[in-house]
Amino acid sequence: MSPRKGGLFVGTLSKESGARTLFAALDLFAGARVEVLGPDAPSHKLRERMARAAYLVLPGTYDAVPRTLIEAFANSLPVIGSRVGVLTELIEEGRNGLFFEPGSARDLARRLAWAGAFPEKMRQMGEWAQADYTARFGADWTYQRLFGERRRYARAL
Question: Model's pTM, two decimal places?
């Protein structure tokens, strides 16, 4: 398997998606390579791109958990996201991703440069991202565990 390289942005080219900030950051740091994929891309194409990328870029503002973040974590892909909203609850700086100030192309360019300079650290963050996915979103609620929890709760009342 070849080493992962560059980034991936999945979304529309709207203001809310932060695409303008991403493109401005790419102008500031020409060494970064970020592939752009539309939100309606087939799931097999998204998985293929995630398998090749070193990180996912989420430059927008989000009210709900972006599905692409969950898929990135499941695919051992750290996230470079804006420090706003729900992303601050899921991304841990230096553990499963990196933050930049919302709307700051300069700060995003710095993070992209750092990610390119330290691929081994990004790979380690990807491993932590997958562990976080398993812990937070994994379906390990067996019948016994689920109803055991309910019984304990009922006894406590």
Answer: 0.84
